[in-house]
From TrEMBL:
PROSITE patterns: AMP_BINDING (PS00455)
Native species: Paraburkholderia susongensis
Stretch list, region Disordered: 507-530
Superkingdom to which the source organism belongs: Bacteria
Keywords assigned by UniProt, alphabetized: Ligase
Name the record gives this protein: 2-furoate---CoA ligase
UniProt lineage: Bacteria, Pseudomonadati, Pseudomonadota, Betaproteobacteria, Burkholderiales
Length: 530
């Protein structure tokens, strides 16, 4: 199999003059970008980097970040991208855990870098006059003479390409090392599963420290396409980029799609070039699926379910046909659902029985184990299968439904209750903008089902309770409380942070009814099982 450096060379050779990368006023073709990448790779070598060394990069989605990613692939250096919002202790841990040789960062991350003892013990390459730097970015991007440049790729398909650090919502973040062959297989699968054609154009807004962002970057190179950098999410700027660069495909988390539709300029901007929509990272509510389908009328609408460890678990290329379905195993993957307490991959759950989703580690996109974490390996890797920690079930057609996380499962009165089922019902109410359901400690029930609702228009708890009663939601799953909030807390990549809701870390929406005669009901104490 080709390594990623040679993969990029394919695009340079096929489409040398095609526009490859845009970041504001910065625009470059494949040939021009290739030269910049080779300069950066040589700059890393002159800093003392050798094949297999790790480089920590703490940058937003800017052209330098994308370029360093490719430079590492050419030089055989392991890219370690980290959230630019990382706190000093998180930075300290990752610098030490990955054993990085240097850090590249920008002013927005400078305070965290300078407050990290481990970061202060390695060379620090700063952009834009970032304080605390020991060198400027010029040491990497200075033009090199032809005589000094190494024009071939130093890596091979079995070398490590990068280490992605999981978000670490509980405990320490886990490093996920992925080889060139894992990354190339995942990018090829992404191209095939999203039906990308030659010359596609995408919005590069999903962070390049996250597997979704990396996949967008690599897949555009595979089809000689255009990657338009967006450093921070801004719905209006995203819409302008769609129109200006005639973007053809979007791959976003549901939250960002929600923001696009909510922007006042949406109806005034030509989004017709976008023919393919893809989403991942979190479930998409039935309501948002319908709104997006009506607004974009895409020829393809893909629900992608995966992870850093195994990029593709499953895909559904017709996301609106069976809302909530994650479809079937990707082209490089085998999946099973085992019983919730299963210790063996052979303890398979029945059709419609909720259990834990597991993936075959022989799949081409699957990692081989966590970096320096035998404890995490012992928990998640069993008999050649990766236990995802996600819950779900197969329906009678063989389609997978993802219901949440094992840790998010609500156990109320002895019943296992999935938050996603309830969220799907509530999301269809016209006054519900966003909703998250979580289990809150309760002396009688163990956990109480609580719906945290961001309203688009006024609605009260009694109305939402009646909505649930009129749906096919079984009675014991109905929320016992409705809490109206200003915003639903999420991670930087759009995952709902239920632990924050459970801990009371939210702002209440105190708006009252327009009609004083309306008396909102925000608590329901009567629950009977059906």
């Amino acid at each position: 199999m080709l390594d990623l450096g040679r993969t990029f060379l394919q695009s340079v050779e096929r489409s040398p003059h095609a526009l490859a990368l845009v970041d504001g006023d910065f625009r470059t073709t494949y040939t021009q970008w290739h030269r910049i990448i080779l300069n950066a790779a040589q700059g890393l070598r002159e800093l003392g980097f050798v094949r297999g060394d790790r480089l920590l990069v703490v940058l937003q989605n800017r052209w330098e970040m994308a370029t360093l990613h490719w430079a590492c692939q050419f030089a055989g250096i392991v890219m370690v991208p980290l959230n630019w919002r990382a706190k000093p202790d998180e930075l300290d841990y990752c610098v030490t855990d990955a054993g990085v040789k240097a850090i590249v960062y920008e002013p927005v991350s400078a305070d965290a870098v300078m407050q990290s003892p481990a970061a202060c013990n390695v060379p620090r390459i700063g952009l834009d006059d970032a304080p605390g730097r020991t060198a400027t970015i010029d040491v990497l991007f200075a033009a090199q003479s032809d005589a000094t440049l190494t024009t071939h790729a130093d890596a091979n398909a079995d070398d490590y390409s990068l280490i992605l650090y999981t978000s670490g919502t509980t405990g320490k973040a886990k490093g996920v090392p992925r080889r060139h062959r894992h990354e190339r297989a995942a990018a090829l699968a992404h191209v095939a599963q999203n039906l990308y054609r030659h010359g596609e154009r995408t919005l590069g807004v999903m962070p390049l420290y996250h597997t979704m962002g990396v996949r967008s970057l690599l897949s555009m190179a595979l089809v000689d396409g255009l990657f338009v950098c967006m450093r921070r999410w801004n719905a209006r700027l995203a819409l302008d980029s769609i129109a200006r660069y005639k973007l053809t495909c979007l791959y976003l988390v549901p939250t960002l799609y929600h923001d696009l539709l909510a922007d006042p300029a949406f109806n005034d901007i030509d989004t017709s070039p976008v023919t393919k929509l893809g989403f991942a990272g979190a479930p998409m509510s039935d309501g948002l699926l319908k709104r997006l389908s009506a607004a974009f009328e895409p020829e393809l609408f893909v629900n992608h379910y995966g992870s850093s460890e195994v990029y593709t678990f499953s895909i559904d290329q017709h996301a609106t046909v069976k809302p909530g379905s994650a479809g079937r195993a990707g082209i490089n993957t085998r999946l099973r659902v085992v019983k919730l307490n299963a210790q063996s991959p052979d303890d398979v759950a029945a059709v419609h029985e909720e259990g834990q989703i597991i993936a075959d580690l022989l799949g081409d996109e699957a990692f081989e184990g966590y970096w320096n974490r035998p404890d995490a390996n012992a928990k998640s890797l069993r008999d050649g299968w990766y236990f995802t920690g996600d819950t779900g079930f197969f329906d009678a057609d063989g389609d997978l439904y993802v219901s949440g996380r094992v840790d998010d499962m609500i156990i109320s009165g002895g019943e296992n209750i999935s938050p996603v089922d309830i969220e799907s019902v509530l999301s269809l109410h016209p006054c519900v903008d966003e909703v998250a359901v979580a289990g809150v400690k309760d002396d009688r029930w163990g956990q109480r089902v609580v719906a945290f609702v961001k309203r688009s228009d006024y609605v009260d708890g009694a109305t939402l309770d009646a909505w649930c009663r009129a749906s096919d939601l079984v009675n014991f799953k109905r929320p016992r409380d409705y809490v109206f909030v200003d915003d639903i807390p999420k991670s930087p990549v759009g995952k709902i942070l239920r632990r924050k809701l459970q801990a009371g870390e939210y702002q209440r929406d105190e708006r009252g009814p327009i009609d004083p005669a309306i008396q909102p009901l925000t608590r329901h104490t009567e629950i009977t099982k059906e």
